[in-house]
Amino acid sequence: MFAIGPSHHLPSCDTVPSMTRTFRFSSDPADIDVPTVVSWLSEESYWARGRTAETHRAAMAGSRNYGAYDIESGAQVGYARVITDGVTFAWLCDVFVDPKLRGAGVGSTLMSGILDDLEPLALKRTALFTEDAHDLYQRFGFEPLADAGSWMLRWGPGFGPQPPR
User: Fold this and answer.
1) For residue 110, what is the domain's CATH number?
2) 100-111 residue pLDDT tens
3) Which of 9, 26, 109, 134 could cross-link with 68 by S-S, CB 3.0 to 4.6 Å?
């Protein structure tokens, strides 16, 4: 077994009812179903498809990890992680909701819990990238970059757009 990042879990786990189900949020790394999360991200996500289990585990070990769980079954139904210096900046990433439960409140459960966990840090900025969940994140105060031209990105070898040959 490996350790998943520093434990920054909230004193208690919140439960968030949806119309038909109730979900539990946890920031306790011990609650993460690592094989399920690795499978979701490497096999079903558009941004991490093909990423190795080793890479996922290393990324998780250097992050704050969060989960949403079905109260009845106990199964993990959502995951997200945050990379942060703990003082000025955070990057919310690898947000994934079980496809069978999208639109049922899992994403809201995750976002509420994550923002509650980060609030005491008084971070200047929390950033994320999404291709398909703008409405969810806007409900939690995220907005498109007004100064997108000021942000820059450097791709690692073999990632991102490949130069023409």
Assistant:
1) 3.40.630.30
2) 999 899 999 999
3) 109
